[in-house]
Specification:
Blueprint lengths: L1 E5 L10 E3 L2 H10 L2 E6 L10 H11 L5 E4 L4 H11 L8 E2 L6 H11 L1
Parallel strand pairs: 1-2, 1-3, 3-4, 4-5
Helix pairs in contact: 1-2, 2-3
Organism: Paenibacillus chartarius
Protein name: Cyclic-phosphate processing receiver domain-containing protein
InterPro entries: cREC_REC
Length: 112
């Protein structure tokens, strides 16, 4: 089981696998069991954004166990949450913001 951090610019926290694009993130979701997925929304000029990942998750019914949104785009976060709320399985934990320090510390401990 892995943790995935999607961001085109920010450094990846310890204990996470970095995805720099929507395509990389979808590939990880397809091929791995994902515990934590932390999403940035904007992924570069003319590039697919994280809403494309959310739409793929919904279409494939393939979700991580826990979702966080570290994006600075409040409109993007709200869009992703609005897409997820009606369809999200009850066993998926949806968090409306970035990972708290204790979650980051847990990921670091598991990586060592």
């Amino acid at each position: 089981m892995i943790h995935v951090y999607l961001d085109d610019l920010r450094p990846c926290p310890a204990g996470f696998t970095l995805a720099r694009s929507a395509e990389e993130c979808i590939l990880l979701l397809k091929e791995c069991e994902v515990d934590i997925l932390s999403l940035d929304y904007d992924l570069g000029w003319h590039a697919p954004n994280a809403s494309d990942i959310v739409q793929w998750m919904i279409a494939e019914a393939r979700y991580p166990r826990r979702l966080y949104f570290h994006t600075s785009s409040s409109a993007g976060r709200d869009r992703m949450i609005a897409l997820l709320l009606p369809v999200l399985p009850a066993d998926v934990e949806l968090n409306y913001g970035p990972m708290p320090d204790e979650v980051l510390a847990e990921a670091r401990r598991r990586a060592t």
